[in-house]
Prior knowledge:
By secondary structure, the chain is an all-alpha fold. It is 97% helix and 0% strand. The chain has one helix spanning 2-103.
Amino acid sequence: xIEKHLDEIRRKEEAAAAALREAETTAAGIVEAARAAGRKxxxxxxxxxxxxxxxxxxxxxxxxxERIAGLREKNTKAIAALDTxxxxxxxxxxxxxxxxxxxxx
Length: 105
């Protein structure tokens, strides 16, 4: 009778050990699947971040280009105004010199 109980206990221990091994195998599979999913998500986030960075850089270049074009236009206008002003002053100076020569001074 004791042998029968001991055999029953041994069978239960073996079944429990087999169930534990199966649970460990299942858990290892779940952990590996979670790691793979995590790596995939990280890669997706890296790709999204790179795309966003590229998009932001393109937008920044576009905005900078527009600002530079505006500044160049203002600069061109300012230079043209200075040229016009300088030409006027040069003509005034030449007229003053010519008037001085005409008057004999």
